[in-house]
Amino acid sequence: MHDPDLRRQAITLLRAGVSNADVARRLRIPPGTVGSWLHTERFRHGDLPVRRRALCFRCLELDVDRPAYAYLLGLYLGDGHIVAGPRAYSLRISCANAWLGLMRECADAIARVLPGSASNFVPRRGCTDIKRYSQHWPCLFPQHGPGRKHERSIVLESWQQNIVRAEPWALVRGLIHSDGCRNMNWTTRMVAGERKRYEYPRYLFTNESTDIMRILTTTLDQLGVEWRFARRNNLSVARRASVALMDEHVGPKY
User: N or C: which end of the chain has fewer CB within 10 A?
Assistant: First the structure.
């Protein structure tokens, strides 16, 4: 990675009419790097036609739809994975066939994070994969790597942390919509000498990765949501006020 000041110097020279080759010689950087910077600068200012398959906000230093990215990050950390193909990577988010609305919202989030071609809906036994090809998925989800997510370190980069701090509920919603649920729990209690059944709503999240669980618990703490571990890999939100907050910002799958 080159120093940002060096890039700014190159852009200033290019705007002044200095050729790519002369800029490269003056700043002692490869001509291809200068050409790439010039192309990116022209794209950012609308001087080039939009190429639908090249709108990676990380590579082009563009603004991103933060709620959509945080939501998609939650889906990826829960039920998503990235597969390397011969020419591109594919992001695949698995959704149970019962949640048609979730499938549509997932595809919409992908389109807003990485504008371009539409996602494919790939049916599998009992579920559907929302799938999209791109060379840029490792740029957008640097947590990608060999092996299962719970067998490797999952740490958000600083730019991801900034997005999550700005849109924490979107991340929580994505995590719950992937590896979580809202259901009704029940217990019994004695009322006037008679044992009666008592039902109450709660949210559950199950994941084998301690890192992903830590990302969720840290975010819930910041939002003032009370939680506890029902089991080592199972988190429960059952306090009435916290469930009300989750209902307002997350809601059940649909």
Answer: N
Query: Which element (helix H / strand E) includes 230?
Result: strand 228-231
- All structural domains of the chain, each given as residue ranges with its CATH number in brackets, are 4-49 (1.10.10)
Residue 104: other Cβ atoms inside 10 A:
14
Query: Nearest 10 degrees: CA dihedral of 17, 19, 24, 27?
Result: -20
Half-sphere exposure of 128 (CA within 13 A, CB side): 17
Q: What is the pTM of this model?
A: 0.77
Dihedral angle sign, alpha carbons of residues 96, 97, 102, 107: positive
What is the tens place of the pLDDT at every residue in 59-104? 888 889 999 999 999 999 999 999 988 888 999 999 999 999 999 9
Amino acid in the structure at residue 121: F
Cα end-to-end span (Å), the chain:
43
Judged by DSSP in three states, 120 sits in: strand
Q: Which run of H or E residues covers position 205?
A: strand 194-206
pLDDT in tens, 12-28: 998 888 888 899 899 98
Enumerate the β-bridge partners of residue 208: none
- Look-up: residue for tokens 């006037």? 192
